[in-house]
Design goal:
Shape: globular
Largest sheet: 2 strands, antiparallel
Structural class: mainly alpha
CATH architecture of the largest domain: Orthogonal Bundle
CATH topology of the largest domain: Cytochrome Bc1 Complex, Chain D, domain 2
Radius of gyration: 21 Å
Distance between the termini: 27 Å
Low-confidence stretches: 1-21, 385-390
Order of helices and strands: HHHEEHHHHHHHEHEHEEHHH
CATH class of the largest domain: Mainly Alpha
Strand order of the largest sheet: 1-2
Strand content: under 5%
Mean pLDDT: 91
Length: about 400
Amino acid sequence: MRISAVIPMLAFATALCPAPATHADDTDLSASLDALGEALFFDTNLSWNRTQSCATCHDPERAFTDPRGAASLGDDGESWGDRNAPTVSYAALTPGFHRSEDGVWLGGQFWDGRASELEDQAGGPPLNPVEMGMPDEAAVVARLKENADYIAAFESLFAPGILDDDAAGYRAMTEAIAAFERRPEISPFDSKYDRFLRGEVELTKDEELGRLLFFSQQFTNCNQCHQLKTSAIDPAEPFTNYEYHNIGTPENLVLREYNVASLGDQDTGLLLNPEVEDAAQAGKFRVPTLRNIAVTGPYMHNGVFEDLRTVVLFYNKYNSKSDARQINPETGEPFGAPEVDGTLSMSELTHGPALDDRRIDALVAFMETLTDARYEHLLERDQDEAAVKP
């Protein structure tokens, strides 16, 4: 399939999206590790064709996700990823990839946890042939050495001559990017929900109903996977327990058709993590944070759903016996079969009764309150765009 045929089907809207923000050129990169990391995060010279930076697929103006569609276009202008770009927002809170005492896999970066820490994740995209496309660490470090400000900053913040050692220089680069991603303003806890907890604002009736439903032990399955803290009013709730589950997400047929030759006919999720060999983990993906969820569509690991309400309807189908509730409103057809069957988290998925439209809308309204203050203007814009769709 030609790229030109894939673009419209993936609903890429590059022309409608603002270009990623750029790093200020007058910053003293030697001032701090995160200042250097910020410059690196926005540097397109770290990709083979000098067209792509971290910010290309993790746009800070769109809550550090890729606003262009279900998957991201690589630096070569031809290759497509197979998964939706996860948000960098709140990623610093994610624990390292590990197995709990009761055998449950937790944490890690990427949808399958294959990068344990932020530093490991930062080192992945530059060397990925379908992302930034650099051939090896030495090639990346050579690009760093083209910039005199980088040389001075690395030597000041790490050690003289560190860029003369390719492995050490590359690792230092990842540490700097991770330091930028750990800035408090990237995980600010300043959404309407956070302000509500601090007594600064009130929730609407729909938002409050959604909050009560979300944290209910009886009426929904939301907090089975999207609550970490023991208290429903914890001020640092990340809205993920960092576990891995197969929720029966349908295959994104467009992505699969394009990537089948190189990636196979299934995305087996956690089973692709080199540390995981148990076939029972096939099709499981890390539970994402719900912070900024209302402005970071499309949804699921493969971007198969465009609208947040569709996601709630998808979950609701497991508990509804109504034929109408089995229909994907985006296609007018029944929700597709799970891409990977046999490992679904059915106890979590079938917890609670079916929800009516009012409760579905209330859950969406509550999740909108999880939007950071700097992105709240996107809620109105996204709603306006949805209103004019045919």
